[in-house]
Amino acid sequence: MDGHEVHRSRPVLLSRRLALLTGAVILASTGVARAGDGPGTSAGNCHVIMFCVGASDGSKAGGSGGQAGGSQGGSGNSDSKTKCRYEKVDPKPPADWPGWKGADPKKNDVYFYGCADGGQANPDGFVIVPAGQQPVPQVDPRVLAQRAVDSMTLLGPDIVSPRAAGKYTVGVPMWMWVNQSATTYGPNTASATAGGVTVTATAKVSKIVWSMGDGASVTCHGPGTPYTSSEDMAESPTCGHVYAKTSAGARNSKFPATATSTWTINWQGGGQAGQLTEVRQTNVQVAVGEVQVVR
Question: Any idea where the domains of the chain sit in the sequence?
Fold first, then answer.
């Protein structure tokens, strides 16, 4: 949409949107109406179902919401990419309009719900609400999924090895592993509810990328394997590294290593499902020396 399109009157835009509707379902507090339920068309601001869409009530309708990350806010319901709002239909459609779905026109109002994207995630349509009341803002399950994640305590890896107090040797295989808990590895599950919709999200670390401080990077798809003395000089079967030089030239004579975990979160609810990603990091200083030969 260019600058000229933005300045066109809302009634005209809504009339065009109405013409394109193909039965999208919109949640309502007392009933559900479909955009394709209206017979016929007419000229001017009256369209599709033989009544007019008034833009004057739009600024009063809907509500405002907020969510960390800017995924919802403003008038009506919107996220960072989609702008949605309600427009009251005035005058009301006739009593025989199928979209009333049995609701009494004398006791109810009709609102048109439209989004800038017009896509499957935010379909256009009509909402039936009790007369004098405003529509309940549509609940985006993706927003609830993020709220569920925000309520979790997702931390960086709880590193067991390498230890900050440990001393490691050039050429000797290092085994890296982490503790597994709900907050540092998962699974971690939480739910969020709004507008009668509940979304449940489950988070678990899918990989840990180790930056060893010597220029090397190691990606481990698991928590790593704990070392036992019986392994002697063997390399870790799941997550390890071999330093080729000492840390003598590094700051404080230690390599600044980091372990960065990627949390993969699967969520479902509100008739939808999806996946989110969170990243957390833990730092550790690693001292690496050479074997001293005693003569």
Answer: 3-137, 143-289
